[in-house]
Amino acid sequence: MKTIDIIVPCYNESEVIDMFYGECRRVTDSITDYSFHYIFVDDGSADDTLIKLKKICENPGADYISFSRNFGKESAMYSGLKNSTGDMVVIMDADLQHPPALFPEMIKGIEEGYDCSATHRASRDGDPPLRVWFTDKFYKLVNKISDVEMPNGAGDFRMMNRKMVNAVLSMSEVQRFSKGIFSWVGFKTKWIPFQDVERAAGQTKWSFWKLFVYALNGITAFSTAPLRFASVVGSIISFSSFLYLFYIILKTLIWGKEFPGYASTITLILFIGGVIILSCGILGEYIAKIYMEVKNRPIYIIGETSIKNSKDDSK
Ligand code: UDP
Ligand code: MG
After folding, report:
1. Neighbours of ion ligand 2 (CB under 5 A)
2. CATH code at 40?
3. Are residues 173 and 239 in the same domain?
4. Number of domains present in the structure of the chain
5. How confident is the model over 206-256, as pLDDT tens digits?
6. What is the residue with the minimal CA distance to atom 13 of ligand 1?
7. Do 47 and 179 fall into the same domain?
8. Ligand 1 site: residues with CB under 6 angstroms?
9. Which residues contact 12 (CB under 8 A, 6 or more apart)?
10. Which of 312, 311, 315 is nearest to 301 (CA)?
């Protein structure tokens, strides 16, 4: 019988985790052709998520990994994938925003020969309007300037076969952006739409600022277009300055010396100064990325786990 691992990153989800497990078990118990294995990743929760997870993991077919601190959802997903052994792997949120009722359809996709059954939200009714607007713009931009295609509304809720999981694991960058990684590795993907719902209980961990940083990370992780933008703007300005210089020389030669010009000079200085600072900022973003990658720190550190021979990041 084929096995399916269900990876669930959990950060302060004590309010919802039991409900999640109950709901999920109802679905997985009804699918008898596959055996399911739950891998809960406690991402350094400050509430009693871990205590609840330990209780859940007394059931057969459920394990937990608990980080030494909060490393973020990307790290949690990575450690789950790293420690999974199933023929197929599902990644899903703990807050029931990802309906387990989709499992049969996702399995069907893989049986049909797809490497991945991925879901995308048919609507974003559960999100505040500003966030919807911001997300929409982000996807438009990132799809325009990067070399990967990231469909708007595509979340991390997906089922992958072993081949694709191994490909995802082979991308061991420290600053992970899974949406881009899933798309970058390729493979045949079946898209399944689902209706968005609000989280069952508890609170979202994403502040607007966190999302902004996440978006910036997504852009710099999969595109060098901002760097090119800086060089293009730099070149245009240098070229125009050269033309302007030429014009001034000619003007002076023809009409002689002229004193006024304070306004144009100050405008140009401010403008060029602004462009230089912007370009430095863009360069800085990439240098910071190089710096973090070069340090090659582990993506996660396990504090405790119920998995025997669990894999840390370096294995
Ligand atoms: N999560 C995590 N580490 C974090 C933040 C979130 O493991 O630092 C988990 C969280 O427990 C949930 C999933 O990632 O299972 C999605 O988080 P959330 O529901 O807050 O995000 P949203 O649905 O609002 O995008
Ligand atoms: Mg959520």
Report:
1. 93, 95, 97, 199
2. 3.90.550.10
3. no
4. 2
5. 788 888 888 888 888 888 888 888 888 888 887 888 788 888 888 888 887
6. 93
7. yes
8. 9-11, 13, 43, 70, 72-73, 76, 93-95, 97, 199, 204-206
9. 45, 46, 47, 49, 202, 203, 205
10. 312
Residues 6+ apart with CB under 8 A from 163: 115, 187
Ligand 2 centre distance from Cα of residue 198 (Å): 8
Tens digit of pLDDT for each residue in 253-275? Answer: 888 776 677 777 877 887 788 78
Rounded Cα–Cα distance for residues 293 and 118 (Å): 28
Q: Are 108 and 254 in the same domain? A: no
> Ligand 2 mean position to 302 CA, how many Å?
23
| Residue owning the nearest CA to atom 18 of ligand 1 | 204
Structural domain containing residue 238: 225-294
* Each residue's pLDDT tens digit, 186-200: 899 999 988 877 777
Question: Residue 28 falls within a domain, yes or no?
Answer: yes
Cβ-contact 100, 25 below 8 angstroms: no
126 Cα to the center of ligand 2, angstroms: 10
Whether 26 maps to a domain, the answer reads yes
Considering only CA atoms, which of 8, 12, 3, 4 is closest in space to residue 65?
A: 8
The alpha carbon of 308 and the centre of ligand 2 are apart by a number of angstroms equal to 30
Task: Give CA–CA dist 290/284, Å, rounded.
Answer: 10
Q: Can you tell me which residue has the tokens 């006024």? A: 260
Residue among 92, 93, 125, 179 to mutate when testing ligand 1 (max atoms within 8 A of CB): 93
Residue 238 domain flag: yes
Same domain, 181 and 251: no
